[in-house]
Amino acid sequence: MKIDITKFENIIFDFDGVFTDNSVYVNSNGEEFVKCDRSDGLGLNLFRAHLKSINWEMELAIVSTEVNGVVSARAKKIGLDCHHGIGNKLSFLSGNQAGQNGNRLRLPLDLSKTIYLGNDLNDLPVMRLAGLSFAPSDAHPLIKAVATHVSHELGGHGFVRSVLELLMDLPELSERDLNELISNS
């Protein structure tokens, strides 16, 4: 699947079930913890270097229903704008609902020029309208049915990286271009 990413202006990521395996760990104080795959962070760095190499800019952001410090902390660590506490993602991305935190995302988005990664029913309205949409292999069946592409990867197990590598057409890069991406990421 060869994708011309210059037809797109944004990539929007859900968080739970996309960057995580959709599990939550809770300690006796009620503090929540999640497990994320570090390779997704490296994939984002490589993708940013790729965008720079082709002289293309895209807005990258997490849009999550959950209001959780874990989401914003991980977003900050991997350099993504973060909007959480979003009850209706379609309404938010259409510019009709305020969210918390993130401020770089220019709303409303043209969803036909948006790539969306999601896994559950609250992602369904956006995935139906996104120009390109991706689901992990363990996504809800209705999400997999509307996704443009269903990955072989599980959410939280390199799913984000696999999508970004597909968008970069990584296997087709020359060794020189790949080495340059690695050194610039």
From TrEMBL:
InterPro entries for the chain: CMP-NeuNAc_synthase (IPR050793), HAD-like_sf (IPR036412), HAD_sf (IPR023214), KdsC_fam (IPR010023)
Provenance organism: freshwater metagenome
Quaternary structure note: Homotetramer.
Gene Ontology MF annotations: hydrolase activity, acting on ester bonds; metal ion binding; N-acylneuraminate cytidylyltransferase activity
SUPFAM superfamilies linked to this entry: HAD-like
Gene3D superfamilies, per database record: HAD superfamily/HAD-like
Similarity field: Belongs to the KdsC family.
Protein name: Unannotated protein
Cofactor: Mg(2+)
Tagged with keyword Metal-binding: yes
Keywords: Hydrolase, Magnesium, Metal-binding
